[in-house]
Amino acid sequence: MMSRGATRVARSVIGHMGPRYFSGAAMGPHDTSLGKLFACGATGFLHGNPAKPSENVMVAWFGYGGIGSRQASTLALGDKKVEDEEEVKAVKSGAAGGATAAAGDGGNGNKEVVSYWGVEPPKVTKEDGSEWSWNCFRPWETYKADLTIDLEKKHVPVTFLDKFALWTVKTLRWPTDLFFQRRYGCRAMMLETVAAVPGMVGGMLLHCKSLRRFEHSGGWIKALLEEAENERMHLMTFMEVSKPRWYERALVFAVQGVFFNAYFLTYILSPKLAHRIVGYLEEEAIHSYTEFLKELDKGTIENVPAPAIAIDYWRMPPDSTLRDVVMVVRADEAHHRDVNHFASDIHYQGHELRKAPAPLGYH
Ligand SMILES: [Fe+2]
Ligand SMILES: [Fe+2]
Q1: Which of 16, 309, 286, 300 is nearest to 155 (CA)?
Q2: How much distance in Å is there from the Cα of 335 to the middle of ligand 2?
Q3: What's the pTM value of the predicted model, to 2 decimals?
């Protein structure tokens, strides 16, 4: 029987199998003002987000030998120790506990990852040769937010379902306002734990439908999963500026249990209602982030430096601040608004989503 430690190693390395097929990207400076930030042009197509010609990029991949292990032992994350690093350490000790092959620990208790399956973690580097700091996303998943998007655009409810969707969202906002009031940092963090659910549920259900019906999805599975991942990155970012208290963690636990199931059922019964609700939720998110910006401008919330994870994910200048982060997150929410209202409209027009090409890489 495979031990628990070996199982964890297997899970970890399997997660790295994708990038091994996309080695040797073209490289060069992306933007001198961004210093350490890079995008991957050659591999950008993976996410439907090809780098612009001006964005010269560099991602190096050395998949084998001892290099992967070296990455695991030397992940540098700037000022912060992030979960990635802890996970890598956990994998190391898990490997040591359960692997069939032995690895030396140098007497310090940090075991090397045992590559029993012949798959090593990739080494992704920046242009200057320094290691990419994040395992949770790679350079080819980063992008510059489109801040020109219309933030004022709203969907006018017409049908009964539209009005029901809007009423649902407005009703949900009332307890949210009451609970968080003007603590926008905490509010953003908590709401992102909910916002990342619909894309995953919708993507999962479309995935199952594609399997059941032996038909293509039109790219909508990937588009919705991209949205879920993007929302989760919002959460990973706001976690750096606002730490959840124990009762907030408990609240997320309870809300997720209810919301996941409620959205799951709604999507099965009426995808057009589900997407409309998310469209209106995103309109509310834009409003919340606008209020967040007002508080930052008034000085009631300190405009601290942007977290390192945000600078890398949105390819922001190194001297960016929390205000810049809120701006790009708000732009993301506007894109989610468009995608979900568009998806609902497709259903309203009597089509299935697969009939309209999905807006992949729409940020
Ligand atoms: Fe979000
Ligand atoms: Fe969103």
Answers
A1: 286
A2: 8
A3: 0.72
